Amino acid sequence: MSAPAVKALRHTIVAAIAASAFLAGAPVSAADPGVTADTIKLGMFAPMTGSMAVGSLTLLGATAIYKSINDAGGINGRKIELVVEDDGCDPNKTIAAVKKLMSQDNVFMIHGGWCSGTALAAKPEFERAPGLPWMVLGAASAAITKPTLPNVFQPIATTDTVARAMVDFALSKPGAKRVAIISHSDEWGKSHLEPLLANLKKAGVEPVETAYLERGSADATSQILRIRNAKPDVVLAVLYAPELTIYARDAFKYNLKVPIVTTQGVSAEDMVKRVGNAAATSELFVFYPLNSTLDAPGMQKWVEMFKKYNPNAPVETLSFLGSTGTLAVVEALKKAGPDLTRAKVIAELNKITNFNPGISSGSLTFTPEVHAGISTGKMVYMPTGERPVIVEKYPAKP
Predict the structure, then answer these.
(1) What are the angstrom distances between the C-alpha of 22 and each of 15, 39, 318?
(2) Measuring CA to CA, which residue among 324, 259, 256 is closest to residue 111?
(3) pLDDT confidence band for 397 (50 / 70 / 90)
């Protein structure tokens, strides 16, 4: 998404939402900022530009829900006013964005964070403001909510859950004993790599090769040749989309044709487009954070909502990664009542139990002790490059 588009989106959201009708007599909290008689100011941040701009789809999915809530009358007489910041998946930009939302924009709460490394970089800001609620948008690192902070909530499958699912799926391939790993070495990569290794060890498997491909790399030849020489039955890939694209293309080029099992940090649809060779992605298995494929009847309500408010954006899996968390925010705001405070919202979020709008791979539950809310997931792949197929175990070849 271009910088002018980001600016236009920000202005459109704030102008359209702030122009809500005034509800006379609605209580206003004197203690907490970001609340007026007719608005609730909510801050958001995600990569809207740069190589990780695919994360903007998750933010757009969330804003679509917030806009639909406003169009239906708002929450307890108030409309949601969004302030959107582009963090470019850059730690320094993320910290600056969070500080701006907290101190300059004086938002009531924050809903954001798509890249784990940048979310972790911003985490200390929320530790210093324990009364300000933060609902994570799509960042998966288990370290975001471990140890539990009173104000930080993670409504998606964490890297612990994703890693367990990846290993279970990889070892479901008949005869699979030799597993190789290719990963980033940053905090996001480590947050997957450590539980991957722990789950492999639990299964009695030692990786035959572990290679690192750093963000921004333009070639994966040396890593692929090392992995190919190790003769793996399956490769576990902990890579963001640009580097996974390079790996998939080069692996096919060098005849390393073994299944690739990867994280929810990419979408199968986007990867098929990026790689541009259906044969190279025919056995790319992606952790799937949703309950069903996008063409399923139960998803049509959400797909149409996304299209209505984002007519020019592609509809992909990542468009709905943050939707259950968004609906949990709405639920907590509703139950907190007209006399709205941050403390009440945090208290209501801690009561979320088996919350399941039918979007995510499992139900969402928060308690005061556990703020990582979803612990299940399957895999999805596109064997012909045309339609995604959800699978629990490695599929037999046709």
Answers:
(1) 15, 9, 35
(2) 324
(3) low
Interaxial angle between packed helices 187-202 and 116-127, expressed in degrees from 0 to 180 and rounded to the nearest 10: 110
Structure tokens at 132: 């300000």
pLDDT digits (tens, 9 = 90+) for 18-68: 443 333 333 444 459 999 999 999 999 999 999 899 999 999 999 999 999
User: Mean pLDDT over all residues of the chain?
Assistant: 92
Instruction: Give Rg (Cα) of the chain.
Output: 21
- Give me the DSSP letters along 53-122: GGGHHHHHHHHHHHHHHHHTT-BTTBEEEEEEEE-TT-HHHHHHHHHIIIIIS--SEEEE--SHHHHHHH
| Global confidence as pTM | 0.84
Cβ atoms 135, 357 nearer than 8 A: no
CA distance 348 to 54: 31
Pairing of strands 260-262, 109-112: unpaired
Residues 216-260 have pLDDT tens digits of: 999 999 999 999 999 999 999 999 999 999 999 999 999 999 999
HSE, CB side, 13 Å, CA atoms: give it for residue 187.
16
How many residues are listed for the chain in this entry? 398
Q: Give the 3-state secondary structure of residue 157.
A: strand
AA letter at 183: S
Side-by-side strand order, sheet with 134-136: 79-86, 39-46, 109-112, 134-136, 152-157, 372-374
Token readout for 332 is: 């907590």
Residue among 267, 231, 269, 262 at smallest CA distance from 247? 262
State yes or no: pLDDT of 1 exceeds 60: no
pLDDT number for residue 18: 42
In sequence order, which ranges of the chain are alpha helices (DSSP H)?
Answer: 3-18, 56-71, 91-99, 116-127, 159-170, 187-202, 221-229, 241-253, 268-275, 300-309, 323-336, 342-349
| Nearest alpha-carbon partner for 384 in 272, 259, 253 | 272
**Are 260 and 285 spatial neighbours (Cβ–Cβ below 8 Å)?**
yes
C-beta of residue 117 within 8 angstroms of C-beta of residue 215: no
Four-CA torsion 336, 289, 270, 240, nearest 10 degrees? 90
- The long-range contacts involving 96-100, CB below 8 angstroms and separated by at least 24 positions, are 97/45, 97/122, 98/45, 98/122, 98/125, 98/126, 99/125
Q: What is the pLDDT of residues 87-121, one digit of tens each?
A: 999 999 999 999 999 999 999 999 999 999 999 99
The strand pairing partners of 81, in sequence order, are 41
